[in-house]
Amino acid sequence: MKKNIIYIGVALIIGMLGGFLLFGGETSNNTTADHDHSEEIASNQMWTCSMHPQIMQPEPGDCPICGMDLIPAESGGEGLALNEIKMTNNAMALSNIQTVKVGNVSETEGNSLLLSGKIMPNEETNAVQASYFEGRIEKLNVSFTGEKVRKGQLLATIYAPALVAAQQELLTAASMKESQPTLYQAVQNKLKLWKLSESQIDQIESTGKIQENFPIYATVSGTVSEKMVEEGDYVKQGQPIVKVSDLGTVWAMFDAYENQISQLTKGQKLTVTSNAYPNQEFEATVSFIDPILNTQSRIISVRANLNNKDGLFKPGMFVTSKVQMPKNADNKSLISIPASAVLWTGNRSLVYVKTNPNEPIFEMREVTLGAKNGDNYTIVDGLSNGEEVVANGTFTVDAAAQLQGKKSMMNAEGGKTMTGHEGHLGVQSDNSGTTDHSEMKERIAVSNKFQNQLKQVFDDYILLKDALVNDDPTNAQQAGKRMNQSLNKVDMKLLSDEEAHNHWMTIQNELKASASAIESTSEIATQRDHFKHLSAHMISSVQLFGIDQKVYVEFCPMANNDKGAVWLSLETEIRNPYYGAAMLKCGEVSVTIK
Questions:
Q1: What is the pTM of this model?
Q2: How confident is the model at residue 261 (pLDDT cuts 50, 70, 90)?
Q3: Based on the domain organization, do 223 and 310 belong to the same domain?
């Protein structure tokens, strides 16, 4: 019995110990797992799908597109914030991405406003020398445009039949002036209206001889700016013979943008310089600011008077002006950045800030712009003194952000799910699975001629895309060459709007760089690597300016090392340029650009 009691006791102890190890340990493990899960959520870890990297969720779960388990987003592993992007040093060098530290306006040239314009004749001193009677020009004493004339100088001699008849009337009325003084006075006044002087009328009366040719004298001094007739021409009464400009003073006509108007006032002093006299500065005074803004170019004309007694300024000459802005306490809080650092999208102005001084890590930030002073903008809000921004290659950084589903010019919110929410390009999906791109970013109005030139660039892009679909690097090279040639034919003069001009200049440089890189290599893998950047910039150009044609933005989640990449197509059928025959159908239509 004692032995049985001992065996039962040992069995109970072993059972209790085993139960503790099994159930107590599990409870502990569950507690630890719950704690770890809470820490994961609390650390703002984002979760994504390996097949659909545009999916970003704050908690683990299933992908709403394919149902696969979500995995931790790579950006968390690299220590990047949600909307930060990291670029390689090689990509920085290839794209010539340059940054600059922003500084206070008082430390830069931000306290001066630069204007460009040209010299024009002073219209207030212009005069038109006209013929006061009808007739034929027998002799013209003005030989060429630019000839100087003085007041009282003989300009031309005219045969005037009507004046011959009027002289005969004068002689007849003179013989009856005692009996018909009113008639005599009326004939004299008629001749005076034709600009005959008292001495000329007295001479006709005293000699009794009729003059057939009459002189026309200059009424002002100046320079002949236009010769309106030639010898032998018949002229009507009041018809201009020559235009005379007094160039003792001239106008400097400057173009000022809409956001510069508040800094200009009538009577303001300007410093004018010209390439003709690079070491000299001339003082001018603002005499007129056009009350009407050009709605196409968003430019207003500003006129300044220039003393030109030495004849240094010639009409048509280009000049620049530096307007010194008054210094005040407000300037201390304003900072200045290069205009090339700014991206515009509708009413938003964006820059890319380097968030790590030792690594190429960037984040998009919205800023409020002040006035444009030369090649710089003052920043009212959004940046601090000493921060570093991308000044060259801004579109390339933005394209990288687009490809990684981060905040970008085309996507204000960053990548989210495509089903019922915002897509990786930041637009709303419709029931057909495609997306309306028309409200993604405000389109800039441009001429049909510019759109047609951009359409040719797009057509060459499609040829390039098709070559990559067909795994044909030779035709891809040729298409890259054709695309470069079409880009060179796009006329930037067709863009009168400053925003449009700046956007296209930046996009064009990026497109040329990618097309040239594709043209210069026969390695299709390298061509496809450059094609993803080319496509991002091509999408921006089509969305901004339009090509009068519906196109589709298509997305492959497997391309670009499983980060995803986009391309443009004319069809909804997927034909993948990043894999060709290997995975021809991989991808989906994500955006429709109307």
A1: 0.43
A2: confident
A3: no
